[in-house]
Design goal:
- The protein has about 70 residues and is of the alpha/beta class.
- It has one domain (about 10-65).
- The chain is about 35% helix and about 15% strand.
- The chain has two helices and three strands, in the order βαβαβ.
- It has a three-stranded parallel sheet, covered by helices on one side.
- β2, α2 and β3 (about 65) form a beta-alpha-beta unit.
- The chain is globular, with a radius of gyration of 13 Å.
């Protein structure tokens, strides 16, 4: 991002693996550091163990998460 001077407004998380959630948050923090508009993290949020665990591990993620539902279009 720094080298190519690029940014984006949405991050689509397809599943709850640790590297996806944490990686999405890392990108948000990098954009914040670069003074860029912060993206939304889009994910179908469920109360399954993985989603809850990721939010507990990274509570600061919650303010960037945007719930999506089946049938939503972008």
């Amino acid at each position: 991002m720094k080298q190519n001077n690029c940014c984006f407004d949405k991050i689509f998380v397809t599943h709850s693996h640790k590297d996806h959630y944490a990686g999405a948050y890392d990108l948000v923090m990098l954009m914040k550091e670069l003074n860029l508009p912060l993206p939304r993290i889009l994910k179908k949020l469920t109360k399954d163990f993985c989603d809850l665990r990721r939010i507990i591990e990274h509570p600061e993620l919650e303010k960037y998460l945007w719930n999506i539902d089946e049938g939503d279009t972008f």
